[in-house]
């Protein structure tokens, strides 16, 4: 009979770590990507009721902005400026992504449509001010919004199977915030997931309210201090450096945007995209969420 060598529990654990890292984890990622997805505080409705396990209905224009052939005119924009913060995951900062006229137009047209923001835990939607305290407004697909949809798709190279979700403006008054969460749900194996996020600042007449990514590394040099909170590089109350803990915090600046990709090529979500809206301490911040939903077409089997 084969007898196993007598190792202490700690020795066994040390042997099992590489087995997990090099064998078990890659296998799970390959075959069960959704199993490894952390619980998501994804904040909107992923309505799978019509077609369980098949992703969302791509003609559902309460969730997606389908290409419906409606003509629209876009103003000639001055153009935006892109700064690369991270290649993996891809995180970019976009100066002047939306013009002042466009931002003001969205602020004006949404002003009477706000209702309390909800969180969704995979089962039910509810208002939970401890997690998310803000109001949100679904935007009509007028010319300005359609031009933004176009800009968001062009920015991503007109990637196929990518659909811009209906856009929401999100307004935070003093003490408004959104606790750390992922925008992705680990649901690609079930049909689709949020591939990318543009966080656009429509109004930033506020103090606080930065968008924080605790797992991203603060870039070197002072050049980024225009866009990032650099004074968080100070020491904490115990005298040790807080930089690692705080990661990166984007200042809300009207017209600018942060863009990041949520999913790897294999469809699994990046843990580095864990992010929050820090509390607004004074004034009002209005953000615009532009999410791109990735849902590859399903191959029909013969005979079905
Ligand atoms: O307002 C922000 O800075 C971030 C908002 C956000 O993460 C979201 O709405 O999913
Ligand atoms: Fe988010």
From TrEMBL:
- Keyword Transmembrane attributed: yes
This protein's source sits in the domain of life called Eukaryota
One Gene Ontology molecular-function label: L-ascorbic acid binding
- SMART domains (alphabetical): P4Hc (SM00702)
Question: Where does the record locate the signal sequence feature?
Answer: none
The cofactors required by this protein are:
L-ascorbate
On whether Nucleotide-binding is a keyword of this UniProt record, the answer is no
Q: Where is the Fe2OG dioxygenase domain?
A: 163-296
Q: Which residues cross the membrane?
A: 12-28
Q: Which UniProt keywords apply?
A: Dioxygenase, Iron, Membrane, Metal-binding, Oxidoreductase, Transmembrane, Transmembrane helix
* Annotated Gene Ontology cellular component terms: endoplasmic reticulum
Note the PANTHER family from the entry: PROLYL 4-HYDROXYLASE ALPHA SUBUNIT, TRANSMEMBRANE PROLYL 4-HYDROXYLASE
Q: What is this protein called?
A: Fe2OG dioxygenase domain-containing protein
Q: Which organism is it from?
A: Penicillium vulpinum
